[in-house]
Amino acid sequence: MKHLHPLLAFFAAAVCLHAEAQTTSPPRESISVANAAVFKACATAPTGQGVCPLDAVFGIFKLAPNDNVLDFKVTNTVPLVVNQNYGWVARINQQSGKVRVLERMTLPQAPKTWGTSGHAFGTSADRKTMSMDLMLNVYNGTVSKSWDVVHGDPAGRYHITVFIDNSAPLQFEFDVVDPR
């Protein structure tokens, strides 16, 4: 795991049009249903009830040297290639400012390192799960978080749970696979 990158606001807004990032395998189907329930509850919630996610996608992307997003693909498969960028984008009911995000990532086995760009984090005793508590910027109603594949990251199924402020959790499950 390497550091996080901010995504461009216009790009994040464009991709967060709920492209059904979850696949139809049984575990992911239940995640898709859970996320849909969160989106539905937020869409009908009274205004003034706090930050609420309205939609979210997960995928891989390419960054320019200045961290501008060049390309994004909604997918649940991340190639196990050093410097491959991946992450999530959520559309929320707040247009700007900052939100508190708790992100919990679980890997199939402990990585060689949990690189978090200097952000404080905690890990489980087996080092397979990492949790970070962050303040992230909101751009045009979207918030996002990303990672890079680094040497020592394991192949297999990953799971990310995201709490934006005090909202119900969003979940993303994806496979990191050797492209050979």
UniProtKB/TrEMBL annotation:
Lineage: superkingdom: Bacteria
Residues annotated as signal peptide: 1-21
Keywords: Signal
The protein's name: Proteinase inhibitor I42 chagasin domain-containing protein
Species, as recorded: Rhodoferax mekongensis
